[in-house]
Amino acid sequence: MKQLANQPARQKVRRFPGSKRESRKAAILRKIGRGLRWGLPFLLAAALLLWGGQALLGIGEIRVVGLQELQPREIIQAAGVREGENLLLVSGDKIARRLAQLPLVEAVEVKKIYFPPVLEISVKERKTAAVVLVGGGCWAADRQGIVFSRRDSMEQGMPVVTGLEEEPTPGRPLPDPKQAEALRLFLEALEQVPGLDVSELNLADPDNLLLFTVEGWQVLLGNSSAMKEKLVLLYESLPYLDPEEEGYIDVRAEDRLVFVPAGGQS
């Protein structure tokens, strides 16, 4: 085909291999620039909010409630928090885990009060359910059989646990697993029979537990099975026994109480 008159010939544009890469780089740089234009104000706002939050939400008071034996300063120190810290950044779960390491602490609840900024730590201390005698020492144990504190003297009205050889570790059950389980099951059952006054529980042989009542009765419990049933049976039968008669009580059969007179048979 003939070229039309007066129409300039179309010139070919040469493309160099690097031009496409350069255009991609330029596009990426433009995107980064747009991101900075939008993101930088956001980052600045977040920084200002954090700085303002530090000023406005700095902990003004650490309040500790529920204590009977422990001191507030002990709890605050173990919690690892200080006044002035940003309340938003404080982890209640971490505080609870730290305080759970204290032998006397049974449970912890952490509450954040934002206006005014207060960190409230509610502590439930372990309560003595039995007194453990071992190695010439006296220890308090809670209703789960956790030994939590050494005592200078025995608490009145608490069952005394004997027959142990190893000293306990505060905040843990008894060292011997069988004795620890026997004590836990016994204390759980005893809590459900509040009228039964127990003077002593001997754990020397966990399969042949020996109990003494406040009235002086010696009771063969056997192992820890059906412990509640055994204690209920004992409690209901005691009023019918003659306190002047010497002998011991056997409830190992779980559903039957046998009184064995001294020097004779039931």
Structure, briefly:
30% of the residues lie in helices and 24% in strands.
Could you characterize the architecture of this molecule?
The protein has 266 residues and is α/β, with parallel strands linked by helices. Helix content is 30%, strand content 24%. It has five helices and twelve strands. The strands form two sheets. Strands 6-5-4-7-8-9-10-11-12 form a nine-stranded mixed beta sheet, with helices on one face. It has a three-stranded mixed beta sheet with strand order 1-3-2. A hairpin with a 4-residue loop joins strand 9 (209-213) and strand 10. The chain is elongated.
Keywords:
single chain; elongated; nine-stranded mixed β-sheet; alpha/beta; three-stranded mixed β-sheet; disordered N terminus; 266 residues; Ubiquitin-like (UB roll); 12 strands; 30% helix; 2 domains; Rossmann fold
Cα(first) to Cα(last) distance is 134 Å
H/E series, N to C? HEHHEEEEEEHEEEHEE
Specify the helix fraction band.
25-40%
Mean pLDDT: 87
How does the overall form come out from the CA principal axes?
elongated
Rg calculated over all Cα atoms: 37 Å
Indicate the proportion of strand residues: 15-25%
Structural class: alpha/beta
Total of helices: 5
Beta strands, count: 12
Structurally, the number of domains stands at 2
* Low-pLDDT segments: 1-5
CATH fold call of the largest domain: Rossmann fold
- Biggest β-sheet: count, sense, barrel? 9 strands, mixed
Q: Architecture of the largest domain, according to CATH?
A: 3-Layer(aba) Sandwich
| Spatial strand sequence of the major β-sheet | 6-5-4-7-8-9-10-11-12
* Name of the CATH class of the largest domain: Alpha Beta
